[in-house]
Amino acid sequence: MKTTSPTKSARLAKKIRKIRIDLKLSQNQILERLGFADELFRSNISQYERGHRVPSPPVLLAYARLADVDLAILIDDELDLPERIASATKDVGVKPSVKARRNYVLGTSLQENSDTVAESFRHFRRPV
User: Fold this and answer.
1) For the chain, domain boundaries
2) For the chain, what percent of residues have pLDDT higher than 70?
């Protein structure tokens, strides 16, 4: 008989899958939206959704922000996700660099890290 570890969330995998399904995203698309397309693979998302792996704290935080829910709702088995996860509107314009997206996910303001902003838009500069 398989039992759940007392230190592992029994419902985390289902919550993560519900977020992706409610947002109508594929596993590859959720990687892009989370900002981890260059660091993780579709198989990682599959493992998270089946409960075979637990996402790292930055990945959990990215899921919570994408779903616009408190991180505690994801990790606390006694709390439920909202009935429907609202689809966040897609940003229009220049796609930020992976580093800029990671800074956003980790809570670092782009204004606090001007080097990241400059790096993100380096290839859009017009010749003088």
Assistant:
1) 11-90, 91-128
2) 61
pLDDT one-digit tens code per residue, 56-86: 999 999 999 999 999 999 999 999 998 888 7
pLDDT < 70 positions in the chain? 1-7, 87-128
Q: What angle do CA 18, 63, 14 make, to 5 degrees?
A: 30
State the Cα–Cα distance between residues 12 and 106, nearest whole angstrom.
20
- 69, 82 Cβ separation under 8 angstroms: yes
The residue type found at 104 is Y
Q: What angle do CA 48, 78, 40 make, to 5 degrees?
A: 15
Distances (CA, A) of 73 to 3, 37, 79, 107, 110: 22, 24, 5, 18, 27
Of the candidates 31, 34, 35, 22, the residue with the CA atom closest to the CA atom of residue 86: 22
Secondary structure letter of residue 52 according to DSSP? S
Q: What is the CATH number of domain 11-90?
A: 1.10.260.40
Q: Model's pTM, two decimal places?
A: 0.64
| Cα-trace Rg, the chain | 17
